[in-house]
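pasting input
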Amino acid sequence: MPAFSVRIFFLFVLLLLRNWSTAQAKYDLVIKSGELIDPRSGTQAVRDVGIRDHRIAAIEKDIPAADAIKVISARGLLVTPGLVDIHTHDYAGTGRKSAYDGDNSIYPDGFTFRSCVTTVVDAGSSGWRNFPDFKDRVIDRSKTRVLAFINIVGSGMGGGEIEQNTGDMDPAAAAAMAKQFPDVIVGFKTAHFEGPEWIAVDHAVEAGKLSGLPVMVDFGKFRPERPYQELVTSRLRPGDISTHMYIDFIPMLDANGKVLPYLFEAKKRGVIFDVGHGGGSFVFNQAVPAVRQGFLPDSISTDLHVASMNAGMKDMLNVMSKFLNLGMSLPDVILHSTWNPAKEIKHEELGHLSVGDPADVSVLRLEEGAFGFVDSLGGRLEGRQKLACELTVRNGLVVWDLNGIARQDWQKRTVFTPHPEWDGTLPLTR
Ligand SMILES: [Zn+2]
C-alpha cells in the first residue's frame, strides 16, 4: 500500500475506534476528585462529576475512569457550579463611542470563561428598542450564556441625554419586548438617571409588574428629592435589585460607624442587594464595616466593562476574593456567585450542580499568598487568599483550561484527536 493510503487507512481505523469508544462510554467527561461545593444542596465534599450529552449525568464518590471518554483530575481544586454574573455590559460592536451600547461594552466570550463565569446578564446596555440588535449582534453568537435586563429607556445606555429622555421610558413597550423573548430577558434596568423625579424607577417597576419580572436599579445621581431610603424601603418590590450596594453615595453608616437600620429593614422586606462593583461603585469605607456588621450582598457581581476590568474590579474572581478576605466563608462566596444570582433572575436551572441540569461547571484554585485588592477610590486591602480559574466547562465542553489539565503530555500525544463530546477549546478539524 502506498504511504498515503496507509495513512488514510489508519485514520479510518482510528475514527472507527473513537466512534466505538464514544458509543460505549457512559460519560463524555468526568471531573475527578475535586472538592465539590454546591451551596444549593449544601454539599462540600470530594466528589466526581460525570457529564454526558451536555448535562450533568452523575455526582458520585467514585466514577470509574473507564466509564469516560475524558477524565480530568481536579484533586486539590474546588469544583463549583458555573459562576453567574448578573451585572455586566456586553453590547459591543455597534461602533458607538463612550457608550455602554458600544465601545464601553465587551464581547463576553473573551472575558467570561477565563474567570470561570458561564452565565452573564447584561444590565440594561440595550433597551426595549434596540434589544433585537443586541441579541443578533452578541447574544446569539456567544458561547457564554448571555441573558439581559433591558433598559426602561428604549435606546438603552447611549449615554448623555439619551438616558435622561423620560419620553423614551415606556413600561408597556418594555414588557412587550420581555414577553417576546422570555428565555433571554430576565427583567428591567434603570440607570444613570439624574432628574429629581421618580419616573425612571417607577416606570421600570411598572414594566416589572406588567411582566412579573424583577427590576435592577442603578440609582444614578443621588438627589434629596428622591432619597435612597425611600427607594429600598417602599418603591422597590420584594425581589427587585439595588445594584452598586457599596457605592459611597448610599447612606450606610451613622456617626458611630454603625450600619443604618433601614438597610436591614429593606433586606427583610425582600429587596435584593447586589454588589455591581464597576469602576466607581465599590468602596472599602462602606464595604468593610457593612460586611463586618452583617450587611452582606445577596449576589456578587462585577459590572464588567472596558474601564472596570482594568481598574480595581478586574474580574468576577477578584471581586469574590475581596469578600473572602473580608471574612466571608468560601461556601458563602460561592453561594452569592451561583445559586443566589440564579434565583434572583428566576433561572433556577442554573447556579447548582444537579443530575439532569446543563453542564456548566467551574474548577477553581484557592491560592494562599500575599495579594492586594483595590477599591474605586484607589484604597488597597491586603489579603492572604485569592481564587483563580483553572478550568471552565460550559454546556459540557471544556472552554478554558489554564494549565492544560485536560491535555496529554506532548511527548505522549501521537495523534491530534479533538473530541466534539468534551473539547470546546481546540478547533475540531485541522
Ligand atoms: Zn453597569
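fyi DSSP finds ten helices and 15 strands in the chain.
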